[in-house]
Amino acid sequence: LGLVAAGCGEVLEQTQWSGGRMQGVNTDAGEIAIRNVVVVSDIDGQQATVLAMLVNSGDEDELVRVRVGSVEAEPEGGSLTIPAGGAARLGSDGTRLDVEGVDVQPGMSVEVELVFGSAPRATVDTLVQAADGVYADALD
Questions:
Q1: Which of 7, 122, 126, 127 could form an SS bridge with 29, CB 3.0 to 4.6 Å?
Q2: What average pLDDT does the segment 11-24 reach?
Q3: Cα separation of 103 and 117, whole Å?
Q4: Are 84 and 77 in contact (CB under 8 A)?
């Protein structure tokens, strides 16, 4: 009976998720949680966009600029406000952050640095994804 009871824990089958729940990289910059950072690029690597979710547990802040490899870019429309206790999204369903002439092709790893108004800078290495499948509309 003891052996049977010992096996009655939570069971998570390997087939429970058909794919990764998150494709990107996570990090923190002070009180800003940076989640699911992904760079999506066209096949020749000259046009790319950055996708990410920024969740702020502190005072209002802003994303000033992002560096992808050696190329810097700003969010569309200028700095992106991240409200106190709120969130902001980079991507086609949020604020776009497109990077031109970055020279990164899908499958490459690239360093991404996020620069904020008050929070410390954050740097992650992320895999460049192709603009197809779940990312098919990312460059539109």
A1: 122
A2: 48
A3: 27
A4: no
